[in-house]
Design a protein that fits this description.
mainly alpha, 446 residues
Length: 446
Amino acid sequence: MRFVLLLACVLFIILSTVRFKLHPFLALFLAAIGFGFFSGMPLNEIVQSVNSGFGGTIGNIGIVIVLGTIMGTFLEYSGGAFSMADRVLRWIGEKRVPLAMAILGWMVSIPVFADSGFVILTPLNRALSKKAGISLATSSIALGLGLMTTHTMVPPTPGPIAAAGIIGADLGLVLALGIPISLMGAAVGYIFAIRFASRLYIDPNPEWSDAEIAQKTTEAPAALRAFTPILIPILLIIFKSVVDYPTRPLGEGSLVNFLSFIGTPVIALLIGVLASFSLPRRFSTEMLSGTGWVGKGVLDAALIIMVTGAGGAFGKVLQNSGIAALLGDNLSGLNIGLWLPFLLAAALKTAQGSSTVAIVTTASIVAPLLAPLGIQSELGKALAVLSIGAGSSVASHANDSFFWVLTQMTGMDVKSGYKYHTTGTALVGTTAAVLVWLAGNFVDLR
């Protein structure tokens, strides 16, 4: 009965957000209350579960999401993303535009949302594609798939941060595993773009001249400064995981404790935000105000935090209802392991469109099921987060805003969008899931 009720709640979330345009926060909140009520939980326990789930989730990751979003806002508005693009093109060569776009997408979407990253880089993509004499479809699909991989699998993008917080995974391990897995996913996306998307010719019709590109490069911060706010938190968080490893490879002492402190996600992201303040060419305290860049970042983060908190409330109700033990008995013999998070996230993503909502909802459902699935170790939890992220890439289509951003900004028709972008996201997500599953075979998930 409870399993049927869970399916009904998931179906309600999908239908209410897709067909009736209900806000995901309200959909998740109502699903939490409804599941608790119809599963027979005491009424006071439903309220306690919702409050503790919402507050506990936001208490763990709310500040991290805000800081990550602010950092992304500064990188976007200062032109830092553009200077990163210019440097990558110098390394790779302007004739290898699809490869450059795939790498740029992978980099930019770590702190910036995929939609925003595509908008930021499209004028440059058009100009370079025209110069290289290639179809805009090839470079745009490579860019879009590169953006999708880190958007769903690499913190400090809010979705993976939220999933790690809900599941209780070590963020350093998520980063350490997510970087190579997402890179391999982006590589598959690049190959798909040059082998298949290149069959569709779209005239790049550049918006910028060479002189305008040179001017944009002059106004943007130096590439090293642009990379710094991203690299510092990533390195600090990974280093903390090394410092805190049970064998204590760096020993004990005040220095080690300090390194562990600055590697805490909240402090690491705060340092990254402070570093991002150096990006604008002309810094103004107005940027730090409620109406400035910081205010914009906080407002963007608010939606993510509310949806994440509602997902945490839903997960807590599921946990306290006893459904974990019930599903554990049913799933223990299936040996489905890391495939369950992937399949559930893929179903939610395909049905309602938002990768972040799919990640948060899946993490909330899966969190109490990890033990019955035999996933209890720190490595196992990190791989579960990546499995969810991989699923949330499958598949971007007409109910996803990113689908329309890509097709409308490139002049690609809907049929071609499904053929290349939707298929590409399904391929990239499935590739990442297979890599996660393979990694799970070589580590102790329990």
